Each structure stands twice: as structure tokens, then as C-alpha cells.
Fold these 3 entries.
Entry 1:
Amino acid sequence: MDEKINIFIAFMLPQKALSEMAKVADNVKELFQPDGKDEKFFHCTLLFIGRFGREYVPSIQEKLKSIAATQQQIPLTIDDIGFFYSKKKDRIKVLYAKPHIMPTELTELCSKLYEIIGKPLDGKTTPPIHEARIHFTITKRLKRRLSREDFEKIKGNVKHFNIPITIDNFGLYYCKDVEHRYYREISKFEFKKDIIPQDKIQF
């Protein structure tokens, strides 16, 4: 039987922004349990395609390449902290960073990826991501219970950060483990570079 893998399209933070995000993660690392693995794969999932055989990858790559060929850069400012709450366990599970103001171009890109790549795959993929779900996971797997009040204190300590970035490439990735922690890059595609003057791109 052909091996199946979880395939997704994601935008990775550029190196400079990645370093800044790592500082934010370090501010709260004592609350979390990495189990010997440094979880700093700072990425924003644009479309989770799902569990498919490797034979689907070439056609997905071709479609992704065609989208990247016409896609302009998208300016994005990461400046807010949020969390995912487990009702089952009644606790905060994940801290993430996100834009306070979501660029329309980014949600439009998610919709385009779904229409061109997701929809043709027999409706097995996740529909366009709601803007609240467009985020960069800071860290997860808590060592102890974290209340909403605890979260507000943490947010107070790390909220004063701003990472202006531009989306200059996105890629196709896969993960094999059930917890979606061990990622591998399949391929990366560049956006067009002519939407923002270089002197306006700052960190």
C-alpha cells in the first residue's frame, strides 16, 4: 500500500522575522514542555490538504507553481498574541501570534488555493481558513494548567512586539507523525517581487 502523508501549503517566516518570533517564544518557554525537541517551526498554514498518497504531490506542485507565478507579495504585520482553548481539558493548549489586522490579500490567497487545489480533491481538504485561524504557533504542550487569567499576564509580558514581514514565498510541506510535529519541505515557490518598493520592506 502506498504510504500516505499529511500535505499542507504554508508560508514560512523569513529568517529575520523567525529570529524575532523565537524571542517571543523564549519569553514563555518555561511554561511549555518540548519533550527534547525544539518546536520553532514558525509557519502559517494557508491550506491543509489532508492525508494523501505521494502520487498526488506532482499535480499539487504544478498547481501551486501556477498560483505562485501570478501572486504578488503580501505585507503582513504580526503584532498580537492569541490562544487555543481545549474545552475537553478546560485549559489553554497553544499560544500563537497573529496579525491584529488581517490583510484581505491573504484571505483571498487562501480562497484561491482552496478553489484551485483543494476543491478538485474530492472535497477532502479543509475549506478556506477563517482569518482567526491564520496564525503562527509560538509554542504548545503545556507543563501545567494555564488559565485565561494566566494568559492575560503572559500576553502582558510579550504583547509589545511587532514583526513587519512580507510573504515572499510559500511552500508545500508534509508531516508523517500523528501529532503533526515533524515537518518536511517538499518544494517552495517565489512570489512576484514588484508590489512593494524595497525601501519600504523593513523589519
Entry 2:
Amino acid sequence: MSLELRKHLLTAIAIALSLAACAKSFDMSDERLTPLGPEWGIVIGSVLVKPIKLADDDGKSGEVADSAYEFHIVQTPPGKPTGDDPNAERYRLQARAQQERIFISRLRPGRYLFKGFAQERIVGVGGDLGLVFDSMPGEVRYIGRLLVEVPQRVSRGKEYRFTVENAREAALTYISARNPELAKQAVDAPMRPREQPQP
């Protein structure tokens, strides 16, 4: 590798690390989130990483069964649908495999992107998601449960799958214990693929 190429690579890695370090927690359940006004919207949802057993699995315990994952969420300003703007707000959400992670987030109005996910401390395990949702001023929106299925044994190199499910009842029951008013106000507005037009 040439010295010039190595310098560019190190610069790119440094920028990526600095952006990740600036990311805020996406779960704001412990913060005071009411009252809502025109400067804020609230989104409620959850993520669940589920290891799946493959047909040719040898029956040994899975390597990802109790792993931790980090999801990356970014605000997407107009004209930057991939969230590549270095000044965009960035968030992270941590979840353990097989444990649903319910979140409440107070966000500025605008469009947001569930950009991708990665297994913590394991390079190369994870991938792109490309799911968008909107935060609307003064609204509480339920954006669904993001279910990510990953192979139980990551060494096999199989692909992950993901879907958005409606698990509203379970999420809002959980949230009602701390924020009953938010749970009452929530309207369904599920995450959707980035290319899909808003209804």
C-alpha cells in the first residue's frame, strides 16, 4: 500500500471514529419528554436481534446468541437522503440479541434514517438497513419493531434479514408505566424503505 493511500485510509478511519464518538443515545426514556411543542416530535419503537438456526447448522451453541449490537441512526437533511452530511445529528442504539430494546426518542422535526447495525467488537458482522421514518412537530409516532435476523454462527457468512413489525401493544404497555400520556397520543407511522414514497 502506498504512503499516500495509507494516509487517505487513516484519515477516513479517523473521520468515521470521530463521527461515531459524537453520536447521542437514541433511547431517551430516562429524560423528561413532555410537554411537546412545535420544535420537537417523539418516536417510539423497538429493535430485536434474533439469531436464526440454519438448516445445515451443526447444533453447537451460537456465537451471536448473547451478542451486543449497535444501531446507527442519522437525520437526513433535504438533498442528503443517505445521511452523509457530517453536520447531521447522529444517534446510536445498543441492543442485546434476543432482548427487545424499546426506545423513546425526542427529535427535531424531519426525516431520519436507520442507517445500519453492527455487532459490537466484531468487525464485519452487520450491514445496511436503509429504513426511514419522520419526526413531526408536536406528534408522538409509533414507528414499529425492527426485527433483524442474523445467522446463529457468523462464520458461515450467510446474509441477515430484517423486517418492520407492528408490536404496538407490547411497546405502548411498557411505555405506559413511565409515560402514560405519550402512550395515549401515539399514532402509527411505521419505518419504511428509503426508496418508498411517503403515503
Entry 3:
Amino acid sequence: MLKDIKHLTKDIEKMVLQGKAKAASKIQFSLQYRSPYWTGTFNAAWKVQKGTPVDPVKPRKENQGYRSGVRAPEAGPIIKTSLTEALYVGNETEYAGFVINRMRSLETAGLTSDQIFGNDSQENPRGISSIEFYEDLFTIGADTSPIPNDPEWYYYYIATEELVQDLDQAFKSVSLAQSEY
């Protein structure tokens, strides 16, 4: 049955909001899939949230070594908002800045580098030099896991067609039936 054209604006708004919600979920899933999983905490902490940016407040779960916490990515929730309300995708772990090679200052965080990275200033039990960012693990040849396996995996995702493809897929999945108008 044909719809009156007067409903077109509301229907387009509804489609945009559905596309926005699906895009956030798709981006969250992609970041889980692409992000490093060797700690078992980081890739599981991607979150979709409305209204305010996601704060990095969850501590890293300790594990017995690299890749001990591997798990399959899970699609995030479809969170609907208004056209004016922001929808954020972020990571809740305290060391999220470390993994994307950008960190808020240690003074702002109120932590020392030993507290963040677990380095023992007397003995250095990891047997490696002081690590400041994820890219430093590549320098020492550590076992790493992002897709692509590159220290700049996050910037690769947001600066290439990967992010645009996720947006396209999300918005293409929402459409008006051609016969409605």
C-alpha cells in the first residue's frame, strides 16, 4: 500500500536513527575484531554509549601471558538516540591510550608508569626496557595481535576505507521499501 508523502520526513529520520545505531554497533564489533587481544581485557572492553564519551576506568585483568584471554568479538547493542544526542564508541580499559599509542598524561591519571605497565624499577621482571606505548612491543619483537598486525592498527582502521565500509554496511541495512511511496 502506498504511503502519503507527508510521512517521508519522519520515515527518513527513523532510517537515519536506525543507521546511526547500527553503525555504532558495527564499529564496536570491528574494533573488537581488529584490536589486540593478548591481554584478554582490551578487546572485550569496547562499548557503545549514548550521551557521554566512554571513560577508560576498568583495570586490566592480569593473566598468565600473551593471548590468554582470546574470545570471539560480540556485536554491541543497538542503542537508539535522537538526532541531536551523541552516540560514542570507546574502550573502558585504563590502558586504552597505551594500546592506541596515545596516552593522557600520567600526572592527569594519577599513576606512575610502574603502576600502569607493571615494571619493577629494581629488577624489571619482564626483562625488557621500559614500555611507554603498544608500538614499543613491536620494537622488542613481542607477541602482538591486532589486525592488521601493526602498531598503528587503530589509526589504520579510522583513516582508511575500513571505517567507511562499516558505516556503509550499517546504513545500507536500513532502507525504505521502494514501493511505499
